[in-house]
Write a structure and sequence with these properties.
single chain; 6 helices; 4 strands; about 10% strand
């Protein structure tokens, strides 16, 4: 998902899959109302602009992009299917600890906090991130019709499946 050349990635995944094999991915969905998408959206307001030519990893969560990439790698559209799911994070600690975990180990959040610290906005980002976490863990948004209705669902995911390669 975080590879800089998605067409090359798709081609390599197809190359290394044994004949008759399957590729299954779990990708974040852009503009999803769930926690991870909202954290990424919040962090983007504090991060420097991406370098020229940057391809957002969130595009792996857009069906048309996935189809285009794998079609260029020789996979017929009929062999690609998708499922939208809601992934439930179980983190039985306060939102501040959840944000601290993302701040230390999740690349986009780490980068946003580093950039926010340089401009004196790290506390503001921390507050916004904690508020985002509180909203998503206390009262998750209703699941879209294609998702399972999970009471604490806070991470939308698009799962492409490529079969019989």
């Amino acid at each position: 998902m975080f590879a800089p050349k998605p067409f090359d990635v798709a081609k390599e995944m197809v190359r290394v899959t044994k004949p008759g094999g399957r590729i299954v991915m779990g990708n974040w969905i852009p503009n999803d109302p769930t926690l991870v998408a909202q954290i990424l959206k919040t962090c983007s307001a504090y991060s420097p602009p991406p370098p020229e030519g940057f391809v957002s990893p969130m595009t792996w969560g857009v069906e048309e992009h996935v189809v285009e990439r794998f079609a260029a790698a020789g996979v017929a559209r009929g062999r690609i299917s998708f499922a939208r799911e809601t992934y439930t994070f179980s983190y039985p600690r306060p939102p501040a600890q959840f944000v601290a975990l993302f701040r230390e180990f999740y690349g986009p959040t780490m980068n946003a906090f580093e950039a926010a610290a340089k401009t004196g906005r790290a506390a503001e980002l921390g507050r916004r991130s904690r508020n985002c976490s509180r909203r998503r863990t206390a009262a998750p948004a209703p699941a879209p019709p294609t998702s399972r209705d999970l009471p604490a669902g806070i991470g939308g995911r698009l799962s492409p499946v490529l079969q019989d390669l």
